[in-house]
Amino acid sequence: MFSTAFLDIPALQGASGTVTLPGSKSISNRVLLLSALCEGTTVVHDLLDSDDTRVMLAALRQLGCGVEVAGTTVTITGLGGRAWPTEAIEFFMGNAGTAMRPLTAALAVQGGDFTLKGVPRMHERPIGDLVDALRELGCAIDYLGNEGYPPLRVRQPSLQLDKPIPVRGDVSSQFLTALLMALPLAAQDRAITIEVVGELISKPYIEITLNLLARYGIQVERLGWERFVIPAGSRYQSPGTIHVEADASSASYFIALGAITKGDGIRIQGVGADSIQGDIRFMDAAEQMGAKITSGPNWLEIKRGAWPLKGITLDCNHIPDAAMTLAVMALYADGPTTLRNIASWRVKETDRIAAIAIESRKLGATVEEGPDWITIHPLPANQWQRASIHTYDDHRVAMCFSLAAFNADQVPVRIEDPKCVAKTFPDYFEALFSVAHTAAANIPVICIDGPTASGKGTLASRVAAQLGYHYLDSGALYRVTAHAALQAGLTLEATDEAAIAKLARSLPVRFEGEQVLLSNVDVTDAIRSEQGGMNASKVSVLPAVRDALVDLQHSFQRLPGLLADGRDMGTVIFPKAPLKVFLTASAAKRAERRHKQLISKGFSANIDALRADLEARDARDMSRSVAPLKPAQDALQLDNSSLTIEASVEQVMVWWQSRQVFGFPT
User: Fold this and answer.
1) pTM above 0.85, yes or no
2) pLDDT at residue 263 in the model
3) Residue by residue, what is the 3-state secondary structure of 92-114?
4) Which residue from 65, 159, 482, 605 lies 20 to 30 Å from 199 (Cα-Cα)?
């Protein structure tokens, strides 16, 4: 997952391949709570691992549920038939509406001494209509801040089950879902009726709730969309095992991707047209705009059809979350697109109507908005603007606007706070980059060259982490190649040159910080040894191996960008890199640093000998006939003799930002 302050997405040109989606957030959190309300054990497969599900799992542990997590399989030992906790408990619910609303209802019906809080945005999201409905039932709930909003305190109820429970349906379907999931706890000797006041929005999410309730033994009688009857004697029963469908809302980004990009199409694994999730109907809207979609059991395939896409007018009440993706697709259409009946956008993680309007205008689009509608006009070629997209701590804003990087004018897009996608799809950007492609010239490279012991590896890995870029420690490649060759039973002599070169060309090596991984095995210490250095020297004189490693180094230039350190990155390997830094320090300072490093690892060392060795190595490196050590003509020189690593990182980031089109993130 990208944990950077911002992520710059280069201009992208196409996409093709297969994406496996994470589990549905809506299904995951419903299933977790339902499993907790059962007696016995439920094994949940393919659970979404995200911020929202972690919030729910933490709450269930606080309540005393057994929770065992093994990857995407979670085993829940429920509270059914057991005493609920009597001590006071405070729950932190983050910004997870799918956890906050139903858990509030279940706690209020069961009773106890519970406090529910969240992040500041959660305290701005209305919950008054749910609280009013629960109070009609006899639940005791107090507001601890602003009336109608969290945080809340729940106390012991005095349940009154002799009349229908009214709840508004036109603000959020999560209020009705919360009641449907909580009231079976009270429907022991009589049926309980819920009456929806006003038009029920987001009906497909209620369909998910009813479908899952049936899986857990609760057969709710639905009378239109106005009355729901929970039968007397209702009792939660564990299904034993249950599988979570992939998230249909998350599928919308890749359905859109297939519709707007050239290529062989996008295949989505984990969800098909027969999904129980209402947002799967995003398919229909995408097809209206021109996408070509085929479907099978648990998969979808999407290709570009009509181009440009067709502008549409659509009532989006049935796909409230996925409809946001249509707003960005609208930028690629032949005329305006109007999305109606989306008042619920105003009370989501942010005011999504306002967010879509503001950020689309940054890209150059004309946008009109109303209380429950938005109209987006397309952006023709030569009108796209470079933009830094503010994401409002809203995962869907970040994922939607990443699609703007496929624009006709080939301008990059900055996504601020990309880690917000962790709410539902922590690996979203990795999934996007796994299928997206662009010309190598569009993928930025920062080169940091310099002499031995100048600290270029530490500096490069830190800058790579700040930008979310891949990292290449070119100096380690000969060492890793020698290590891999010996593991493969090869000698390090010229007789095995061709075999070593073949191995080097596709070496499964990657760098994570200052760790070196070969086939996912940490070989850092093995290659950094004195013997590792001697072995590297042996293979470095083999011309075929050198050529193979040049090809390997070029292969590290992958989306979204690369930090490469070495001695000839800016002069030989990536001569067109937009930023080249030549890092140096005095031989005395480098010897001092190397001495401290060796002593800290338990090795004896003589600082004078180290300095003499570094000076001799500098002389050899600078006089080499092939790729001698020297700054590239356009390199910026950084002497870090008196700088901390933090100051060096800051300087490189300032230089990089000065060459970008966005300026600093807001």
Assistant:
1) yes
2) 86
3) ECCCCHHHHHHHHHHHHHHCCCE
4) 159
Burial degree of 260 (CB within 10 A; 0-12, 13-18, 19+): buried
Given a cut of 60, whether residue 375 has pLDDT beyond it is: yes
C-alpha to C-alpha distance for 493 and 574, rounded to whole angstroms: 29
The CATH 3.40.50.300 portion of the chain extends over 441-658
Task: Identify the top-confidence range among 159-173, 244-258, 611-625.
Answer: 244-258
Q: Which class is 25-243 in CATH? A: alpha beta
pLDDT of residue 666: 40
Nearest to residue 172, comparing CAs of 343, 392, 319?
A: 343
Task: Determine the Cα–Cα distance for residues 245 and 26; give it in Å rounded to an integer.
Answer: 10
Phi, psi of 602 (to 5 degrees): 90, 10
Binned at pLDDT 50, 70 and 90, residue 488 comes out as very high
Q: What is the pLDDT of residues 566-583, one digit of tens each?
A: 989 999 999 999 999 999
The dihedral through the CA atoms of 341, 278, 333, 394 has a sign that is positive
Residue 231: DSSP 8-state = P
Task: Work out the mean pLDDT of the chain and round it to a whole number.
Answer: 93
Query: Residue 569 carries which DSSP code?
Result: I
Kind plus residue range of the DSSP H or E element containing 400: helix 395-402
pLDDT at 600: 78
What is residue 162's predicted lDDT score, i.e. its pLDDT?
86
Instruction: Name the residue type at position 192.
Output: I
What are 302's strand-pairing partners?
A: 266, 293
pLDDT at 444 exceeding the cut of 50? yes
pLDDT at 664 exceeding the cut of 70: no
Domain 6-22+248-437, CATH among 3.60.21.10, 3.30.420.10, 3.65.10.10, 3.40.50.2300: 3.65.10.10
Q: What is the number of other CB atoms lying within 10 angstroms of the CB of residue 64?
A: 15
Q: Where in the chain is the domain with CATH 3.65.10.10?
A: 6-22+248-437, 25-243
Task: Provide the CATH number for the domain formed by 441-658 in this structure.
Answer: 3.40.50.300
Average pLDDT of the residues in 315-343: 96
Q: Provide the pLDDT confidence category of residue 585 given band limits of 50, 70 and 90.
A: confident
Mean pLDDT in residue range 7-21: 97
Q: What is the 3-state secondary structure (H, E, C) of 76-96?
A: EECCCCCCCCCCCEEEECCCC
Q: Which helix (H) or strand (E) holds 38?
A: none
Q: What is the pLDDT of residues 188-239, one digit of tens each?
A: 888 999 999 998 888 989 999 999 999 999 999 999 999 999 999 999 999 9
Distances (CA, A) of 517 to 69, 484, 550, 575: 27, 11, 19, 27
- Residue 475: strand, helix, or coil: helix
Any idea which residues carry the catalytic annotation?
A: 321
Handedness of CA 198, 199, 204, 205 (dihedral sign): negative
DSSP string, 491-519: -SSGGGHHHHHHHHHT--EEEETTEEEET
pLDDT > 90: what percent of the chain?
A: 81
**Three-state DSSP state, 593:** helix
